Amino acid sequence: MEQLFSDGALTVPFGADFFSVAVGVITGAMFACDRKLDIVGTIVLGLMTAYGGGIIRDLLLQDHGVYFMEYPSVILICIGLAVFVFYFRGLFRHSGQLLFFADALSVALFALAGANKAFACGEGFVMVVILGALTSVGGGALRDISVGETPGVFQRSNFYAVAGFGGALVFAAMAFGGAPLVLAAVACVFAVVFLRYLSVYYDWKTADEADLTPKVSRGAHAAKDFCAEMFRRATLHRKRDSVARAPLFRKRKD
User: Fold this and answer.
1) Which residues contact 147 (CB under 8 A, 6 or more apart)?
2) Do residues 188 and 107 make contact, with C-beta atoms less than 8 angstroms apart?
3) Mind listing the pLDDT tens digit for each residue in 104-156?
4) Mapping DSSP to helix (H, G, I), strand (E, B) and coil, where does residue 5 land?
5) What pTM does this model have?
6) Spatial separation of the C-alpha atoms in residues 125 and 175, rounded to whole Å
7) 158 phi, psi to nearest 5 deg
8) I want to staple 167 with a disulfide (CB 3.0 to 4.6 A). Which of 50, 64, 145, 192 is the partner?
9) At what angle do helices 96-120 and 14-34 cross, to 10 degrees?
């Protein structure tokens, strides 16, 4: 257990990091294959999906090292994995449920890696949550932009970015609340996977049309009419009272 810590910060096991990167490569490569890209495009999109979110996080943190450049051997393995997917894509098309779980777990681990590194670098609560969420979906967003598509995380869909944000929020709340970082990490991963599966099971999707202007306008008009009616009744009541009390103030005529 002590190996999970370094200078008071949580050290994510290398195997978990490699797993999330590998799943990112596979999903990015399959994305490229579905769009009929060549082997170069498959490799580039695979690497972009796997490393994109972490690169954005590291560039924003500045002077804290870039994960992408720390393990060159892993990059070579990822390139080989992307080539394998390109030539044997059929093996992955029949593993929908397994890939879905692996992808959900990968998003969770990316969210954990981003939030944990931001926390270890001394960032505040808000930035820990933002960098955790950004790391979880940044690679996929860059991948979509590279092929001229609107990023999937910006479109109506089951919880993806929301799940990453939720996991990062759980980690930040527990870490800043003084909970053990290992417990915060487990809760983060569980929250992301749970939200991802829950949104698919109940078909919860982010809204793409949420203009509240008509509802607020109707409410404002109703409130205005109500206030006007109350004012009219109050004015009428005052007039009736003044008429009823008028004889009491008349002077007697001798």
Assistant:
1) 32, 35, 37, 45
2) no
3) 888 999 999 999 999 999 999 999 999 999 999 999 999 999 999 988 888 88
4) strand
5) 0.78
6) 9
7) -65, 160
8) 192
9) 130
Type of residue found at 94: H
Tokens 């796997």, located at residue: 50
Q: How many helices (H) and strands (E) does the chain have?
A: 10, 2
**Residue 250 CB contacts under 8 Å (≥ 6 apart), including other chains:** none
Residue bearing tokens 């999330």: 20
DSSP bridge pairs for 10: 5
Task: Give the H/E segment covering residue 6.
Answer: strand 5-6
H or E segment to which residue 9 belongs: strand 9-10
Q: Which pLDDT belongs to residue 215? A: 77
**Cβ count within 10 A of residue 12:** 16
Residues facing residue 5 across a β-bridge:
10
Q: Distances from the Cα of 32 to the Cαs of 29, 140, 152, 187, 194, in angstroms?
A: 5, 12, 14, 33, 28
Residues contacting residue 76 through CB under 8 Å, at least 6 positions apart: none
Tokens coding 10: 């949580």
